[in-house]
Amino acid sequence: MSKIKGRNDGPGGRNEHYDVGSRKNVPRRNVVAEIKRGEHPDSHVVKINGREYARDNPDDSTHDNVNRDR
Prior knowledge:
This is DUF3892 domain-containing protein. By secondary structure, this protein is mainly β. 13% of the residues lie in helices and 34% in strands. It has one helix at residues 28-36; strands at 4-6, 17-20, 23-27, 43-48, 51-56. The strands form two sheets. It has a three-stranded antiparallel β-sheet. A two-stranded antiparallel sheet has the order 4-5. A hairpin with a 2-residue loop joins strand 4 (43-48) and strand 5. The two termini are 15 Å apart.
């Protein structure tokens, strides 16, 4: 289960910050760097319109998605 949760705090609901476990309001660039270093094996990085975002790896569950209902 992903411990990364998007805050939908940017324009149009983009995730500019994430809650990562007990850490709150972590900037997107930090979370992306952590994923690239392999610190979150259940997540990956996607690039949308030139920006990189955290995403949960595909599985049959929706309750652990980065953009799950709050």
